[in-house]
Amino acid sequence: MPFLKKLVAIGCTICLTSGAAMAAKCGNTSAGFEAWKTDFARQAQKAGVGKRGLQALAATRYSSTTISADRNQKSFRYSLSKFMQIRGSATIEAQGRKRLAKSPKFYQSLEKRYGVPAGVLLAIHGMETGFGGFMGDTPVVSAITTLAYDCRRSDFFKPHAIGALKLVDQGTISSNTLGAKHGELGHTQFLPGNAYKYGVDASGDGRVDLYNLADAMATTANFLRKKGWKPGKGYQEGQPNFRVIKEWNAATVYQQAIAIMAAKIDG
């Protein structure tokens, strides 16, 4: 009997080892991308991704430009003053004030609903895309899928890749939708998983479109509120809402710059 139990145990070990071997591994080059996609498609399907999303996944290509950008984020290592200079903080502040003066009721309505001041939303909008001036030139689904495959931060990006595929299912984006190098979408550069989870149809056309300004601003405000924004509280370093800005971007200089610019926009 002990001998039989040993055989069963060995058999189970072989089965588990074979199953692990079948799972495609992450990679740091394009070599294993197609095999990994096949495995990821099974994961996506289990997560609720439908036919259109799976077709978009099958059509993705390894994005070398995304990997290059991910390895070369030098600006976040600059001093605060240099970071703000390079990012054009003075221009963002001036344009932010003009935009607020042009559409005060719009931003007041967002603050009334979500508690997030106009300055914060406008600072993020200016920082991310120059107020919509450039929203990216990289196919979103390919970019985010490449990052989910890449070993550097695979676990972080996998949920966002699933989110992107679900957005395709919804008709919110397609395989051809362009965004930033890391797969971010729209006016304020939302990662797809966050766009899927926090998206708001502020324009009332029945769909969430982050390339639509109203939807993008409302979605940004909704994200910050859901992450713990406290209406009426401060957002400078040491104040309650500064930690919520950290939820938007993990780089300290980015957080500090947003808080400073936002205060100047809000006046």
TrEMBL record:
Keywords, A to Z, come to: Lyase, Signal
Q: Name one GO biological process term.
A: peptidoglycan catabolic process
* Region forming the signal peptide: 1-23
Q: Do the record's keywords include Transport?
A: no
UniProt key word Signal = yes
Q: What is its EC number?
A: 4.2.2.-
Q: Name one Pfam family in it.
A: SLT_2
| Transglycosylase SLT domain location | 33-235
Q: Tell me the CDD domains matching this sequence.
A: Slt35-like (cd13399)
Protein name according to UniProt: Membrane-bound lytic murein transglycosylase B
